[in-house]
Amino acid sequence: MDHKQKYLQWVTNAKDEQIARQLRTMSENEIKEAFSGDLSFGTAGLRGIMSAGTARMNVYTVYRATEGLAMYMDAHGYTSCAITYDSRNNSKRFSEIASATLARHGITVYITAECMPTPFLSFMVRELKCDVGINVTASHNPAEYNGYKVYDRDGCQLLDEDADEVTSYIERVELFEKPLPCFDDYVNKSVRYTDKLLEEMYIDRVLGERLTDESLEQLNAVYTPLNGAGYRIVPETLRRAGMTVLLVEEQALPNGDFPTCPYPNPEKAEALALAEKLATEAGADIVFANDPDCDRLGVAVRDGDSFRQLTGNEVGILLTDTILRVLKDNGDMPDRPVIVKTIVTTPMVDAICNAYGAEVRDVLTGFKYIGNVIGKLEKQGAVNRYVFGFEESCGYLKGSYVRDKDGVVASLLIAETATLLKKEGKTLISRLDELYDAYGHYLQRTLSYRFEGLSGAEDKEKLLSAFRFSPFDTLGTSKVVDICDFLTQSKYDLPVADVLRLRSDDGSQLIVRPSGTEPLIKCYITVKGDEQGNERRLEAIKAQTDAYFSKREH
What we know:
Elements: H1 3-13, H2 17-24, H3 28-35, E1 46-49, H4 59-76, E2 80-85, H5 91-104, E3 108-111, H6 118-127, E4 132-136, E5 145-151, H7 160-170, E6 191-193, H8 196-207, E7 221-224, H9 233-240, E8 245-247, H10 273-282, E9 286-290, E10 297-303, E11 306-310, H11 312-329, E12 338-342, H12 348-356, E13 359-363, H13 367-379, E14 386-391, E15 395-397, H14 407-423, H15 428-439, E16 442-450, H16 453-469, E17 474-475, E18 478-485, E19 500-504, E20 509-514, E21 520-528, H17 531-549
Parallel strand pairs: 2-3, 2-4, 3-6, 7-8, 7-9, 12-13, 12-14
Antiparallel strand pairs: 1-5, 4-5, 9-10, 10-11, 14-15, 16-21, 17-18, 18-19, 19-20, 20-21
């Protein structure tokens, strides 16, 4: 069917009032955008703009994905699923549609009574011994987006092979063959709400990852959940560690409109603006923020009279250094400790780990690959070797109690790190400077180029294909001496990925890849040398990528 035929099918069969109302008011261009393809179930699950249409997030596309997932579960003899959701508009409703769809197949569902952090879903799967998990979230995407992630029985997001199998079942689903199931028909039967005890267990496990037993009461901090799912759990966890945070009032409660921050990404300066303003007024030492599903952490630190936002790499460097240092000083370092990072994360981690005798394992972008390493270590009876994992996009995890990045434990760890340094008369910034002096001055920047709509998606694919065929032969003024195409490489034991890495003879690096969750091409630049030279080299490489991919967004 073409997009017009699909639209007419929906007009005829879609009984949901909200969707029917949207269908009646759609323009010709909106119909084309919404019905020219299907919302694909990729390795990060579903993610898209909320609206009517086969290429949009709505009750019908969520139902179709869950119907396919139920078929996959039936084929494997799976009988139980854990479900939670973030603070976005429609997240609760989508989770209820998913719950009822599975229940109609005779699958037992455990669902939270309110929005909860993404890592809690991973914890639920593991503690309740569920076969599958579903998290309704679009993470840090703009407010008009929502998404749907699926987890395996280890509490890790589905890896590529399983995701492909789920996709094969979804493609068999006839969307309007059966009416949408009713959530209320299954509550307290096949669908059961989780209790407060599970939340207490989760908080206890997070607190079990503390580096010291000392109170954090000396640290003055401002926290914002960005109207997200961390609004209760993070302040409560910190309170139990002896710390009271000042909350940004406008962003303190769940609100899917994100009225003060429509793009609730803690990597972005605008996401921390209100928190920094409050911190300035209150004389706070540090600001930290979680995204709406509370799996990422953004940090800003007082620097004189203003605040400096740290990059995801800088926070990861500080946490890696502190965790290894404390473990060594306390005599708690495991034999052959392992740090896991993604291939786009700063290589400065390697230098730090080398000094502590820790092994670094590089994985593809996506925290599920870090979770997979933890799972493999666990099967080998060596899970204690895993010390820390992180990715440059502000995702961190210490401990093996979950298999996804955890903004709750990251908040606790950065608070502990800042407190320990404060007692030494240092700050996060001064410690960073010490690390740069010890291991070399690394400078990284991530650039994003946005390609909206059908035409944008075509432009993105053409640019990536052309770049793969004819990549840069220099990075700035330095000659490219190594090119690794992760679609075809055999040097590393990694799955196939649409990633291209260029390295030049002065040590600069450029990695280019499409985002798996947004309509973006992402470019990761790394340079090393003296500070002035780093800025010059980085700006030269940035100018190259801007000119090639067209300056859209940074």
